[in-house]
F-box domain-containing protein
Amino acid sequence: MDHILPELLLDIFDLAVHSFFDQEQPSPSSGQTGEETALAIFKDDSYPQSQLQPGIIAHKTNPFTPIHLSHVCKDWREMTLAAPELWSSIYVANGSPGTVKLFRHWLHQAGSRPLELVFRDTGVTSNTESGRDAVVEMLRIAAAHSERWKSVETRYEGWKTM
């Protein structure tokens, strides 16, 4: 970290966790035409549910999180934990009892930043009673922070009643 300015490293961290990611294709470049940009946005929005990993991430197509960065070394951990902008986008795919604790941690790390929240069911665990209970609990927790909402999206189309 002595060789890279902290501000630059933080910008790199932000790109690492908040950018489109697809192992099959390189990410969209900044030199795109308007049509290419629109297609990239559509692709991001229509990312297949089968590709989503259960848990909490910072971007719907990107599995890298601030937690991954915080495990690299002591300096990166300190920087990551002191950067609420890395934690203010919270994408929840499915629910499980362990996800609730992690969701609270992300909210705490986001500080007072505006929140971008997405709750999405991939049909893997959220259709269980414990999964649905976890999602409902996270929605309650999120509601307590509603004054900070920048955006909220929920996608739970196939829930079955028990």
